[in-house]
Amino acid sequence: MTTQMDIAKVLNRLFEEPEDKYTSTFKKNPKNVKAKLIEKMTECGLWLKEMEKDVTINFIKYNNFIFIKENYFIHPNWQLAGNLHWQFFAELYHVPNIAQYGKINNDELRTPQTRLVFGNERWVKMKDNHIFYTWEFDKVMFCKGNAVERHRIGSLNCEGKIVVDMFAGLGYFTLPYLVHAKAEHVYACDLNSHAIEALRNNLDLNKVADKCTILHGDVLKTCPEGKADHVNLGLIPSCEKFWE
Q1: How far apart are CA 94 and CA 61, in angstroms?
Q2: Locate the SAM-dependent methyltransferase TRM5/TYW2-type domain: which residues (predicted)?
Q3: For a disulfide at 232, which of 76, 87, 165, 240, Cβ 3.0-4.6 Å?
């Protein structure tokens, strides 16, 4: 059973890794990679022409995980191949874990539909803009598309400012406010207990835990009033009831 101490040891090793080992998206000679994979399947007598549309070389790569959409590698022959194709990707891209993902559940926690197909780790690790992030692959959604906003927030000058981060999640924006924008304090609100656990780990990992108060629960009830110089929340329809 994995303990908090075990997780801490793994996370602390991230500081010893060079930044160029962490990336959000990755491609590597797609035509050659695809040809080599087809060659391996052909050697096993399992390759069929109809499987070609089932192959993708486009995926999301983090330090220790590759994420591939669930609508690829679904032909029955891939199952007959066992772990051959997953082992191929793991060795080629130097990652120990591979997961397939679908759409985010339309629930209040926005739970990811993700399953592990290779490896045995649960915590994804990533470094972006000199900030370390980690989260459980099937418990917490990570939105790679908000990188521009993460970087924009990190470029702000929030010295001496108090920030309330509604729907803080694993710390997408809480961490840039603290690490780069130098906010005096952040109140981080979220309902998802798994996201809160990841946030605690990430605050410790980036050595800013003393500057953040975590408020776990319904944001409408936990969000502090009259404290913020900045309020961070999503400008999407599902967040409209929180705007006031």
Answers
A1: 10
A2: 59-244
A3: 165
Query: Residue 106's pLDDT band (boundaries 50, 70, 90)?
Result: confident
Whether 180 and 155 have beta carbons less than 8 Å apart is answered as yes
d(CA 238, CA 234): 8
4-121: in CATH 3.30.300.110: yes
Give the model's pLDDT for residue 192. 92
Number of neighbouring beta carbons within 10 Å of residue 166: 22
pLDDT at position 7 is: 44
Q: Which of helix, strand or coil describes residue 31?
A: helix
| Extents of the domains making up the chain | 4-121, 142-242
Fold equal for 4-121 and 142-242: no
The full DSSP string for 163-215 is EEEET-TTTTTHHHHHHTS-BSEEEEEES-HHHHHHHHHHHHHTT-GGGEEEE
Residue with more model confidence, 184 or 225: 184
Look at the block and give the residue holding tokens 């929030």: 158
| Predicted model pTM | 0.81
Q: What is the CATH number of domain 142-242?
A: 3.40.50.150
